[in-house]
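Example 9 (inverse folding). The structure is encoded as follows.
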C-alpha cells in the first residue's frame, strides 16, 4: 500500500511538472505574437507619418509668397536712319511714298523705331521699322528716267511660254521695285492703245499696275504733273489715247 501511495505521488508530481512546462510554452508564444503585432503597428504608423503632410507645411510663409514681376520694356537696337522727314522713297509692294515722321512703337513688348510712310495713291499710311529700311530705295535720278524711257522705246521681248508663267515673272518684276524692270513690264504688255484689243483682264491689270508706278515716280523726279508725265510716257510707247465718247 505504501508503495502504491508513493507511485501515485510521483505521478502527480510529474503531471504538475508537465502542466507547468505547457504553461510556460504558451506564455512564450503569446509574447512573440504580441511583439510581432507591435512591430507591424509601428511600421504602419511610420508609413502614415511619412505620407502625411505636416500642417506647418500647408501654410504659405511670407518668404515663399510669389511677388509680381515687373516686365521691363526692351529697346530694339536701331540702325542709323538713312532717310529724313519728307523724303520720297519707293517701297516695292506699294510704290512711291513720303516719310511723314519717325515714331517709337511698342511691338511685342519691345520699343521699335518706325517710319510713318504716306502712300498717296493708296491713300494709306504704313509703318516700317528703321531696321528694315533696306527694303526701301531712294527715288530714281534723271539718268535712270532717261534710260527707262529708252527701254520703253525698244522692241518688246515676249517669251514663248504659258501666260501663267509669264504673269508670275511680271509680278515679280513689279514687286522688285526696280525702275528698269518696271519699264520692261510696261514695254512687253503695251498694246499701243487704251482700247481692249486682244488683251486679257490679267494682262491689263499687270500693265496698269506697272504703268501707274512708273508715272508716280517720274512725276516726282521730273517735277511735273500727272498729265504731262503721262504724255511723255505715251509718246515713248507710241500709245494712242482713246477719246471719250
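The amino acid assigned to each position is listed next.
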Amino acid at each position: 500500500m505504501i508503495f502504491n501511495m508513493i507511485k501515485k505521488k510521483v505521478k502527480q508530481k510529474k503531471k504538475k511538472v508537465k502542466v507547468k512546462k505547457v504553461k510556460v510554452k504558451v506564455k512564450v508564444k503569446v509574447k512573440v505574437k504580441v511583439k510581432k503585432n507591435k512591430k507591424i503597428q509601428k511600421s504602419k504608423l511610420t508609413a502614415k507619418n511619412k505620407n502625411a503632410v505636416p500642417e506647418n507645411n500647408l501654410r504659405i510663409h511670407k518668404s515663399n509668397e510669389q511677388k509680381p514681376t515687373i516686365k521691363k520694356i526692351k529697346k530694339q537696337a536701331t540702325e542709323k536712319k538713312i532717310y529724313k522727314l519728307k523724303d520720297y522713297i519707293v517701297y516695292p509692294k506699294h510704290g512711291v511714298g513720303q516719310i511723314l515722321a519717325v515714331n517709337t512703337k511698342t511691338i511685342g513688348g519691345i520699343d521699335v523705331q518706325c517710319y510713318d510712310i504716306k502712300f498717296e495713291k493708296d491713300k494709306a499710311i504704313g509703318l516700317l521699322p528703321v531696321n528694315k529700311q533696306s527694303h526701301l530705295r531712294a527715288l530714281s535720278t534723271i539718268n535712270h528716267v532717261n534710260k527707262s524711257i529708252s527701254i520703253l522705246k525698244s522692241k518688246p521681248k515676249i517669251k514663248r511660254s504659258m501666260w501663267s508663267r509669264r504673269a508670275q515673272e511680271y509680278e515679280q518684276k513689279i514687286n522688285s521695285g526696280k525702275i528698269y524692270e518696271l519699264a520692261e513690264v510696261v514695254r512687253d504688255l503695251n498694246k499701243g492703245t487704251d482700247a481692249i484689243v486682244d488683251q486679257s483682264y490679267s494682262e491689263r491689270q499687270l500693265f496698269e499696275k506697272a504703268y501707274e508706278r512708273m508715272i508716280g515716280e517720274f512725276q516726282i523726279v521730273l517735277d511735273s504733273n500727272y498729265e504731262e508725265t503721262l504724255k511723255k510716257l505715251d509718246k515713248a510707247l507710241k500709245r494712242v489715247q482713246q477719246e471719250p465718247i
